[in-house]
Amino acid sequence: MNFPIQQGLFKYDITDHYAILGIPLNADSKLIRQRYLIVARSLHPDTCKDKTENGKKLANKLLSKLVNPAYELLSKEESRKEYLLILSQMGLNLAAELSTITLASDTAQKLFQATQNADLVYDKLLKSLIVEQYSELNQVLPKIAQLSELNLVYLMVQSTEKSDQHKPKVKPPSEKPEPIEKEPVAPSVSAIEASIRRVKEYLERKNSSQAIIELRAALKNEPNNCT
C-alpha cells in the first residue's frame, strides 16, 4: 500500500479494511455493500465533488488502491472470517499493553476510558468519524488512521473482557477439609489450538501473511470449530 498510515492496526503491518470503508468490526455483508456503494460514488471520477485534476487523481487512487481492495476482501464471507480471526488474535496479543499504549486520537482515548457499554461507545464514536470521512480528500488518510486506532482499542478491550470472563472463580476457604480428588489427566492440545498458537507466533513476528495461511489450513481441517 502506497499510503503512509502509522496508527492503529496499520502500525502493526495489518491493513485495516474496516477503517478504510468506515464500518464497524461486526458489519454484515449487507452493510458492507451499502457503505462501499456510498464511498465508491463519492470517489468515482463522474460523481466526485472535487473537480480539480489533482483531486480526481487522488480520488481515483483512493478508490483503486484502498477502497476496492477492502471491499473485495470483506465482501467474501470466507476471507472476511479469516481476516477477523487475524484481528481478534492481534487484539488478544496486545491486550496486556492496553494500559500502557500511547493513543494519538481523542476518539480512541474516549473508548479506552469507557468503563461500561464499550460496544455502544465504540459504535457512537465510529459513526461520528465516518460522517464526512471522504468529503475532504486531504483528510481521508487521517480519518482512516483514527478509525483504525479506534478499532485496535476496541479489539483490545474485547479481548480483555473475554479473558476476565474465563478466569476461574476462586472458592472461599472451607471449614471442613474436602476429600482429595484425583488430578485429571490434561487433555491433549487439539489441532485448531495448535494452529492458533502458531498464528500468535507469526503475528508477534509481524508475519501476517503466514498467519493467514495457517488460519486457512486450520479452517479447512476443522470448518465447524470457531475457537
Number of helices: 9
Query: What is the level 1 CATH name of the largest domain?
Result: Mainly Alpha
CATH superfamily of the largest domain: DnaJ domain
Might you state the CATH topology name of the largest domain? Helix Hairpins
Low-confidence stretches: 165-170
Fraction in helix: 55-70%
- Tell me the span between the first and last alpha carbons: 31 Å
Would you write up a description of this structure?
By secondary structure, the chain is mainly alpha-helical. Helices cover 59% and strands 0% of the residues. It has helices at 17-21, 29-43, 53-74, 77-94, 106-113, 118-130, 140-165, 191-204, 208-221. The radius of gyration is 21 Å and the shape is globular. Residues 165-170 have low confidence and may be disordered.
Task: Characterize this entry briefly.
The protein has helices spanning 17-21, 29-43, 53-74, 77-94, 106-113, 118-130, 140-165, 191-204, 208-221. It is mainly α and 227 residues long.
Defining key terms:
227 residues; mainly alpha; Helix Hairpins; 2 domains; 9 helices; 59% helix
Write the layout of secondary structure elements.
Layout: H1 17-21, H2 29-43, H3 53-74, H4 77-94, H5 106-113, H6 118-130, H7 140-165, H8 191-204, H9 208-221
